Amino acid sequence: MKKVLVIDDELSIRLLLREIIEEVGIEVFEAETAIVGLEMLETKNFDLIIMDIQMPQMNGLDAMRKLREITNTPVFILTAFNHLEEVVVNLEVDVQKFIKKPFDIDELVEMVKKQIG
């Protein structure tokens, strides 16, 4: 079974993503902080990571740098920021998709299915 790791400090976002992604037969794991997510990556393999940028303790950009030391798993970034894609490109962080909050549920599901089959 395909596995997705959702890293977001907002419980409501994690629960929504779990519900919509599990409906298409993909197993979802959750981490409430980037630190917890990075710890999970040390022991489990995932087919996709969906991560928020603005989180306490460690933001998503710092987490991306550390994450790339552990895995080359595709990453979708959730963001409420308008110009984040330009910032990330300039920082040379490898991200597959940027998903602007609020996001379209059907569109997100299609992106996930397309990315991991």
CATH superfamily: Response regulator
Question: What is the number of beta strands?
Answer: 5
> Biggest sheet, open or closed, and with what strands and sense?
5 strands, parallel
Instruction: Assign an overall shape.
Output: globular
Percent helix: 40-55%
Question: Structural class given helices, strands, pairing?
Answer: alpha/beta
Order the strands across the largest sheet as they lie in space. Answer: 2-1-3-4-5
Order of H and E elements: EHEHEHEHEH
What's the CATH architecture name? Answer: 3-Layer(aba) Sandwich
Could you name the CATH class?
Alpha Beta
Number of helices: 5
Please report the distance between the alpha carbons of the first and last residues: 11 Å
Overall mean confidence score, pLDDT: 87
CATH fold naming: Rossmann fold
Low-confidence stretches at least 5 residues in length (pLDDT < 50)?
Answer: none
Number of self-contained structural domains: 1
β-strand percent reads 15-25%
Radius of gyration: 13 Å
Structure overview:
The structure is a single chain. The chain is of the alpha/beta class and 117 residues long. Helix content is 43%, strand content 21%. The chain is built from 5 helices and 5 strands. Strands 2-1-3-4-5 form a 5-stranded parallel β-sheet. Helix 2 packs parallel to helix 3. The longest helix is centred in the first third of the chain and has 12 residues.
